[in-house]
Specification:
With 259 residues, the protein is an alpha+beta fold. It has one domain: Deoxyribonuclease I, Chain A. It has 8 helices and 14 strands. Strands 3-4-2-1-14-13 form a 6-stranded mixed sheet. Helix 5 packs parallel to helix 6.
Length: 259
C-alpha cells in the first residue's frame, strides 16, 4: 500500500486565484489529486501553465454560461475513465461534476448548487442533490466505491456554522438541504472530517464582504464523503485554513491505495 493526498478547493475563480499565487502553492503542495470547484472559466481562457502541469493529467468541465460555476481535476495517477455530469441535460449545463474512476475508488468532484438566489435555484439545488444520489447509487450497484468531494453548499449540523439559529431559514442550512446529507450518510457514506473530529468547530467558507474570516465566523461547506468500505484506508483528513486566495479554504484527505 502507498498513501496519496487528495485536495479539494473551491477557488472562487481559477483565473483570480492564479493571480494570488496558486501555482506557487500547487508546486509546493504537489497533491496527488487536486479537485477544484467554481473555476468560472473555460480552458481556452487559462494561462498555459495552468493547463499543462508536468506529471498531471488535467480535465475541465465548464458551464454554458461564461464566468460561472465549473470544475477541474488535476491528477498524477492516470484515471481509468473520466466523465462529466450525470447524463441529465437540464442539470449538467453548469459544469458542476467530474467523475474519475481509479482502480481503488471512484472520485466525484462536485460543485453543488447554491440555493440562496431564488426559489427556482433552491428547487434546482434539491433536484441536483436527488439526481446525484441516484447516480451514485446506480454506479455503486456496479461495484464502484465513491469518494465524494467538493463544495456541498450546505452545513450539515449546528456545529458546522457559526450562527445556526440565525440561519435556520436560509438556504445552506434549511432542513430539506440538511436531510439530504442525512440520507447520503444513511446510504453508506461517511463525513470523514466529522468522523475523525466529532466535536471540533472548524469552517471552510467565510463571507468576504463582512471580513468574516478574520473573526472566524464561517460555515463548513466543503466535504469528503466516503463510501464506508473505504473508511479503513483513511490516514487523515485536514482543513487547510491557512491557505488563502478564495473565500473557501482547501480540504485534504490522505488515503491508502494499492501500489
Amino acid at each position: 500500500m502507498s498513501t496519496i493526498t487528495i485536495i479539494s478547493w473551491n477557488v472562487n475563480g481559477l483565473r483570480a486565484v492564479y493571480q494570488k499565487g496558486f501555482m506557487q502553492w500547487f508546486h509546493r503542495t504537489q497533491p496527488d489529486i487536486l479537485c477544484l470547484q467554481e473555476t468560472k472559466c473555460h480552458a481556452v481562457q487559462l494561462p498555459a501553465e495552468l493547463c499543462d502541469i508536468p506529471g498531471y493529467t488535467v480535465h475541465y468541465s465548464s458551464g454554458e454560461r461564461k464566468g460561472y460555476s465549473g470544475t477541474a481535476l488535476y491528477s498524477q495517477p492516470q484515471p481509468l475513465e473520466v466523465t462529466e455530469g450525470m447524463g441529465i441535460p437540464e442539470l449538467d449545463g453548469e459544469g458542476r461534476l467530474i467523475i474519475a474512476r481509479y482502480p481503488d475508488f471512484t472520485l466525484a468532484n462536485c460543485y453543488f448548487p447554491n440555493g440562496k438566489a431564488s426559489p427556482e435555484r433552491l428547487r434546482f439545488k434539491l433536484a441536483f442533490y436527488e439526481a446525484f444520489q441516484q447516480h451514485l447509487a446506480a454506479r455503486r450497484k456496479r461495484g464502484e466505491r465513491f469518494i465524494v468531494t467538493g463544495d456541498v453548499n450546505t452545513a450539515h449540523q449546528p456545529i458546522d456554522l457559526a450562527h445556526p439559529r440565525q440561519n435556520e431559514k436560509i438556504s445552506g442550512f434549511l432542513p430539506e438541504e440538511r436531510v439530504w446529507i442525512d440520507r447520503l450518510l444513511a446510504a453508506g457514506y461517511v463525513d470523514i472530517y466529522r468522523h475523525f473530529h466529532p466535536d471540533t468547530v472548524a469552517y471552510t467558507w467565510w463571507d468576504m464582504r463582512t471580513g468574516a474570516r478574520a473573526r472566524d465566523v464561517g460555515w463548513r461547506l466543503d466535504y469528503f464523503l466516503l463510501d464506508r468500505e473505504l473508511l479503513p484506508r483513511v490516514v487523515s483528513t485536514t482543513i487547510l485554513k491557512e491557505v488563502m486566495g478564495s473565500d473557501h479554504c482547501p480540504v485534504a484527505l490522505q488515503l491508502k491505495v494499492k501500489q
